[in-house]
Specification:
Largest sheet: 4 strands, antiparallel
CATH class of the largest domain: Mainly Beta
CATH architecture of the largest domain: 7 Propeller
Shape: globular
Oligomer: single chain
Strand content: 35-45%
Helix content: under 10%
Number of strands: 36
C-alpha cells in the first residue's frame, strides 16, 4: 500500500470514528475568571485557528481549537470591542463601540477609534483613523468578512446607526449614516455582494423601541424596512441563516417582560414570523443553528436553550452563560462565545474543559468569583486523576437546588459557571448558598452569596 493511500485510509477511518461519536458542548480552556468580561465576538478560520474579542479591550487567539489561548491585546476598559473578523491568518479587523456610547456610564468607552487592524495575525493592532468617533459618534457592532476583499459591518448597539463597507481589504472605507432607517444596528448578514440584511432597534430607549430588520439589494446604497416588531421594549440582536431560505433573528426582550420570541423566515428573509422562546422573562442575545432545525440561543443570565425542530419548541441545557456569538465551522463543529468559549464537536464531555496550565497534585475547590455576585459566578476546581466529578449548588437548608456539572473528567483544573438559577430554571432568591465538589476520594464545600 503506497503512503498516500495509507494516509487517506487512516484519515478516513478517523473521520468515520469521529462522526460516530455524539456531538456535545464542552468548555474550551479560555480562562474567563482571569478575563471576566463577556466575549462579544468570535471568529475561526478553520477548526483550530481562531480569535475572540471582549468588552474590556482584550483580544485572545488559539491555534489548537481552544486547548490553549494567548492574549494578543489588552487595552483595558478604555476600548470596548464588539466584533472581530479575519481575511486570512495574518490580516484582520476588530471593531469597537467608540467614544460616547453611553455617556456617564462606568463602562462607557473612552476610545475614539472604532476599528483596529492587524497584519500579523493579531500580534500588533493599529487604529484605522479614518473612522473615528469623537466628532461623529459611531461604532462597530456586527462585522461580516464576506470574501477576500469585502467587509460589511454595522453599529452601534445604543445608537447611532451606521453601515460600513470596504471592497479593497480595508484600504478605503465607506460609512453610511443609517439614522433615517433605524436608531441603532447590531448585526449584519449578506448573501451576495448586493443582497443582505441588518438588524437593530427603532429607538435607543427600551420602553419605546421595536425590533427592526432592514434589507438591501444594492450593496447598502439604499435599504428597505423588511420587518418591524409590533411590541415595544424589544431589540433585534443577532441574525443567523443556517441555509439560504431558513433564517433566525434573536429578540432582546428588555425589562424582564414576557413572553419572549425569536423570529424565523422560511423564504430567505422576505417574511418573518414569531416563534415562542420563553413564557417568562429572558434576555435573549446570541442565536446560532448548526442546520435548519438544530440550534441554540442564550442571553446574559439564564440557561441557554436548544431547539431540534426549527424553533417550534425550546428546552434548557447547560452550555454557559451570556452567550452572544455562535460560529459554525462545519456540520459537526461550532463555537460560541459569552462568559467563556464553548465548542460543539464529537465527544461526550459537556460544558467543561481543563485549563492547560494547571497540573494539580490534589483535589481542590476555589472560592467562586465574583463573590458576592449577580447573577453569574465562576467556580474553579482541580482534579489530580481521571474520575467522576460533580458540582452541586445547595441552599442554606442543605437542599440541592441545581447540579451544574456531573461528568467524568481527566486530571486538570476546570471552570464551571452558575447563572443563579435552580433546576426549575427559576431565579434563586438572594442569600447564602453552598457549592460542593464531590470526587472519588474527596468532598469539599464553600460558601457564596447571591445578591439580587
Amino acid at each position: 500500500m503506497n503512503i498516500v493511500l495509507r494516509i487517506t485510509l487512516i484519515f478516513s477511518l478517523f473521520s468515520i470514528a469521529a462522526a460516530q461519536q455524539p456531538l456535545s458542548w464542552k468548555n474550551t480552556n479560555f480562562n474567563y475568571t482571569a478575563n471576566a468580561s463577556r466575549i462579544n465576538d468570535i471568529r475561526f478560520l478553520n477548526p483550530t485557528l481562531g480569535w475572540v474579542a471582549n468588552g474590556i479591550g482584550q483580544i485572545h487567539k488559539t491555534t489548537d481549537g481552544g486547548v490553549t489561548w494567548t492574549k494578543m491585546l489588552d487595552k483595558t476598559n478604555y476600548t470596548h470591542f464588539r466584533s472581530i473578523g479575519f481575511f486570512d491568518s495574518l490580516n484582520g479587523y476588530a471593531g469597537a463601540l467608540g467614544w460616547g456610547d453611553s455617556v456617564g456610564h462606568p463602562n462607557d468607552s473612552k476610545d475614539t477609534v472604532i476599528l483596529y487592524r492587524t497584519t500579523n495575525g493579531g500580534t500588533n493592532w493599529n487604529p484605522v483613523t479614518a473612522l473615528n468617533s469623537k466628532n461623529i459618534r459611531r461604532g462597530f457592532c456586527g462585522m461580516q468578512i464576506f470574501n477576500d476583499s469585502t467587509i460589511y459591518a454595522v453599529g452601534r448597539v445604543r445608537g447611532p446607526a451606521w453601515f460600513y463597507k470596504t471592497t479593497n481589504r480595508g484600504a478605503t472605507w465607506t460609512a453610511k449614516d443609517m439614522n433615517g432607517y433605524a436608531a441603532g444596528l447590531i448585526d449584519v448578514k449578506f448573501f451576495s455582494k448586493d443582497t443582505g440584511f441588518a438588524v437593530g432597534l427603532t429607538h435607543i430607549t427600551h420602553e419605546l423601541s421595536r425590533a427592526i430588520i432592514l434589507g438591501t439589494t444594492d450593496a447598502g446604497e439604499s435599504w428597505d424596512t423588511v420587518y418591524v416588531a409590533t411590541r415595544t421594549n424589544e431589540w433585534a440582536w443577532k441574525i443567523n441563516f443556517p441555509s439560504r431560505k431558513i433564517g433566525y433573528v434573536s429578540l432582546q426582550r428588555n425589562n424582564n417582560l414576557s413572553p419572549v420570541f425569536v423570529l424565523k423566515t422560511t423564504d430567505g428573509g422576505t417574511t418573518w414570523n414569531q416563534k415562542l422562546f420563553s413564557n417568562t422573562g429572558y434576555f435573549v442575545q446570541g442565536i446560532g443553528f448548526l442546520n435548519d432545525t438544530l440550534g441554540w440561543a442564550g442571553g446574559t443570565s439564564l440557561a441557554p436553550k436548544q431547539t431540534t425542530d426549527g424553533g417550534e419548541t425550546w428546552t434548557s441545557l447547560t452550555i454557559g452563560n451570556s452567550l452572544n456569538r455562535f460560529w459554525k465551522i462545519n456540520d459537526s463543529l461550532m463555537y460560541v462565545s459569552g462568559a467563556g468559549v464553548w465548542k460543539f464537536s464529537p465527544g461526550t464531555s459537556l460544558g467543561i474543559g481543563p485549563n492547560a496550565d494547571a497540573v494539580p497534585i490534589s483535589a481542590s475547590l476555589q472560592q467562586n468569583y465574583p463573590n458576592p455576585f449577580n447573577p453569574n459566578t465562576s467556580i474553579e476546581f482541580s482534579i489530580p486523576e481521571e474520575g467522576h466529578a460533580t458540582i452541586g449548588i445547595y441552599d442554606i437548608g442543605g437542599k440541592l437546588i441545581r447540579t451544574i456539572f456531573s461528568n467524568i473528567v481527566k486530571k486538570g483544573t476546570f471552570t464551571v459557571s452558575w447563572d443563579g438559577r435552580n433546576d426549575g430554571d427559576d431565579d434563586a432568591a438572594s442569600g447564602t448558598y453552598f457549592y460542593r465538589l464531590e470526587t472519588k476520594n474527596s468532598t469539599q464545600t464553600k460558601k457564596m452569596i447571591l445578591i439580587r
